[in-house]
């Protein structure tokens, strides 16, 4: 730009003078001048194309991703294909095949959220876009082969707790580690409580006049919680962490009710910080200080499982009183004592079913419970107050920060660290602490690396765990990958002091390059972050409608753009992440056969199918179901056998018109499969449209364009 400013005025004066001297006053029409002008233009264009091509190639140059191999805790030799797939990590999303039915399913899924007056216009635009961009070809991903190999070799697959890799171990070692993990925090019950606890909960809801909660507790079919495990690869011996799941259990509605009202209690916490950004804002005063400090961190061991029940109930009661019992009763709709009764019942009802055993936590709350975080915060509120009182007896100058179960303690070097630790342990209410002192490399706390210097404390953004970044070759939407880059680079600047910011950015850039992110993309986003700090960001209008669809390369983002015209926001989900392999490998019995014991099994059990019921006259009934096919056929059989005179069921209506015609339910065949209901309805509509002997009506109507698009796949 500076060179242009210097040369441009002189060239505007000199060039016309020289051309006039050489070619005369009308030099613009002289053939030689036109030749020179055209040659200069071609030279400039070719040079510019070469520059752009070089920049583009550098921008898109992707380094080969360096994957972390899985941790193998057995002597079994796995195939190269299995090791290669598992090395990509639990977060990786492989590029699985996409069908044309999948694409149209996404279009119709979004259309259900479009207002009726605009729905057809969206469908027309969405179908045109999808038909113009059919599914891209994909390579074969050995998902099934990997699952079958691990099951055939009697191996178990787990996700690591902190390092973000897979862990493979044999059934014997897995059983021992599971037994140790359960015995550590759970007691085995001699009898199965059955539905007695649920009955007590429903009776308590009746006495407290909570009919909606009673109905929610009575709805789920599952009586007991389930448990799954992760491997603590950062600890010696690789023990397992037990985590419960409340999905589909009656305890979940009760826990959500308690959580919703406990979350309204807002009391001053002496040490708690919401995140590392809040911590950084408080560390600025210690960045440059003449006083000498020392620091260490304390980690609470097994916080949730170590909450003393009596102290926990007293803490909740005290918190309600500080908040205001009248306000709490008005918001929750129950008295303080009634709420405490519900809480006590919940803590007794977190029963876990593992194998043929029923277990209950020894004390505290299970990891995985949605109520555990808010209960632990209330518990630690009163622990922190006691610790603060003890520390004030030692020194008037101290800095303590707590995030969940991690404490950071910064105190003058004149005060003994052991006496500070003693203040914590004497006020712990049964909690145990693990201490970590600052070393030559500093002290890790949350996602910050703290360094003690003679002039004060410096800090740099650095990931706490050794989990690798999501690989660039993963089939995630590009905005997810761009968001990862933005988050890491912006955090390196915002969460690092002025002395260590550049070093932190360099480390994050190295991690991103190792995960396969192109250098050009990193540079582009870094420039955008620098410029964004200088320009105010325009506020975005929030969409009133949001729909989630699976991400498909080259078509999903086009559908997102079309939906935006109709004030509908589309977000994307991964069709498959490798962490889902853990359940498929470890719970092999969950995929064997049907869970329903049919009195009369008409055909082999299948779920999520499009089926065809033949008639003796040659016609057929085509339908779809997401449940077991035998369950749906039983409904058809009952409808036919008990059909009243005014029934409009297609099979009944057909048999009225077609004399001596019978439906051959035992000869029912499967003509299509899809997990999504709309996908099955699309297949059903296509099969019905192409069958002159069908007697059923389709659930949705397909246009001629959609029919032609589906023809190569469904014919």
Task: Describe the protein's architecture and organization.
With 715 residues, the chain is an alpha+beta fold. Among the domains are: 44 residues, no CATH class; 55 residues; 119 residues, no CATH class. The protein contains 25 helices and 20 strands. Strands 10-11-7-12 form a 4-stranded antiparallel sheet, covered by helices on one side. The protein has a 3-stranded mixed sheet with strand order 1-3-2. Strands 4-9-8 form a 3-stranded antiparallel sheet. Helix 10 crosses helix 14. The chain is globular. The chain starts with a helix and ends with a helix.
> Care to count the β-strands?
20
Could you name the ranges where pLDDT drops below 50 across 5 or more consecutive residues?
Answer: none
The general outline is globular
SS-based class: alpha+beta
Q: Compute the CA-based radius of gyration.
A: 33 Å
- How much helical structure, as a percent, in the residues? 40-55%
What characterizes the major β-sheet?
Answer: 4 strands, antiparallel
Organism: Ixodes ricinus
Protein name: Putative tick transposon
């Amino acid at each position: 730009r500076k060179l242009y400013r210097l040369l441009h005025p002189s060239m505007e004066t000199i060039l016309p003078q020289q051309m006039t001297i050489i070619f005369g006053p009308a030099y613009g029409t002289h053939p030689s001048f036109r030749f020179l002008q055209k040659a200069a233009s071609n030279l400039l264009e070719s040079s510019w194309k070469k520059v752009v091509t070089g920049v583009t190639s550098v921008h898109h140059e992707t380094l080969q991703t360096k994957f972390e191999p899985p941790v193998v805790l057995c002597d079994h030799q796995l195939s190269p294909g299995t090791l290669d797939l598992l090395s990509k990590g639990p977060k990786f999303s492989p590029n699985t095949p996409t069908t044309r039915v999948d694409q149209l399913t996404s279009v119709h899924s979004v259309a259900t959220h479009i207002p009726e007056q605009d729905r057809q216009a969206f469908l027309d635009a969405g179908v045109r876009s999808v038909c113009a961009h059919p599914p891209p070809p994909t390579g074969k991903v050995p998902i099934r082969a990997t699952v079958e190999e691990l099951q055939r070799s009697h191996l178990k697959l787990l996700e690591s707790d902190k390092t973000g890799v897979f862990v493979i171990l044999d059934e014997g070692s897995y059983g021992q580690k599971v037994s140790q993990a359960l015995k550590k925090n759970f007691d085995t019950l001699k009898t199965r409580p059955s539905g007695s606890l649920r009955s007590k909960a429903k009776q308590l809801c009746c006495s407290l006049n909570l009919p909606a909660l009673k109905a929610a507790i009575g709805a789920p079919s599952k009586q007991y919680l389930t448990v799954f495990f992760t491997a603590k690869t950062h600890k010696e011996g690789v023990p397992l962490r037990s985590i419960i799941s409340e999905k589909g259990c009656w305890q979940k509605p009760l826990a959500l009710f308690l959580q919703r009202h406990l979350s309204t209690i807002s009391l001053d916490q002496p040490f708690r910080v919401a995140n590392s950004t809040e911590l950084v804002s408080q560390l600025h005063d210690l960045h440059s200080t003449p006083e000498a400090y020392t620091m260490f961190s304390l980690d609470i061991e097994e916080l949730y499982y170590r909450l003393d029940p009596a102290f926990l109930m007293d803490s909740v009661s005290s918190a309600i009183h500080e908040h205001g019992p009248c306000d709490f009763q008005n918001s929750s709709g129950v008295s303080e004592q009634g709420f405490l009764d519900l809480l006590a019942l919940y803590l007794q009802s977190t029963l876990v079913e593992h194998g043929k055993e029923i277990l209950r936590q020894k004390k505290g709350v299970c990891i995985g419970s949605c109520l555990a975080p808010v209960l632990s915060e209330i518990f630690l509120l009163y622990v922190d107050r006691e610790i603060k009182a003890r520390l004030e007896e030692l020194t008037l100058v101290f800095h303590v920060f707590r995030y969940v179960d991690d404490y950071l303690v910064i105190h003058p070097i004149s005060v003994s660290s052991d006496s500070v630790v003693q203040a914590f342990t004497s006020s712990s209410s049964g909690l145990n602490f693990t201490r970590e002192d600052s070393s030559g490399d500093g002290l890790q706390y949350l996602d910050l690396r703290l360094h003690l210097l003679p002039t004060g404390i410096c800090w740099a953004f650095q990931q706490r765990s050794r989990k690798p970044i999501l690989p660039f070759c993963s089939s995630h939407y590009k905005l997810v990958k761009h968001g990862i880059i933005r988050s890491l680079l912006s955090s390196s600047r915002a969460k690092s002091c002025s002395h260590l910011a550049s070093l932190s950015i360099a480390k994050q850039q190295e991690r991103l390059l190792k995960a396969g992110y192109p250098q050009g993309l990193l540079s582009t986003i870094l420039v955008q972050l620098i410029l964004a700090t200088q320009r105010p960001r325009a506020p975005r209008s929030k969409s009133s409608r949001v729909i989630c669809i699976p991400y498909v390369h080259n078509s999903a983002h086009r559908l997102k753009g079309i939906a935006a015209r109709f004030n509908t926001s589309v977000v994307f989900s991964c069709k498959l992440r490798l962490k889902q392999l853990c359940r498929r490998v470890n719970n092999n019995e969950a995929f064997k056969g049907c869970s329903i014991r049919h009195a009369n099994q008409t055909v082999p059990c299948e779920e999520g199918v499009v089926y065809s019921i033949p008639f003796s006259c040659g016609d057929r009934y085509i339908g779809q179901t997401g449940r077991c096919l035998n369950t749906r056929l039983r409904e058809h059989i009952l409808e036919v056998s008990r059909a009243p005179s005014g029934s409009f069921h297609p099979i009944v209506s057909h048999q009225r018109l077609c004399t001596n015609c019978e439906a051959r339910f035992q000869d029912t065949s499967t003509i299509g499969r899809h997990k999504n209901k709309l996908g099955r309805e699309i297949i059903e509509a296509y099969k019905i449209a192409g069958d002159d002997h069908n007697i059923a009506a389709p659930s949705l109507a397909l246009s001629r364009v959609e029919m032609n698009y589906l023809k190569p796949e469904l014919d």
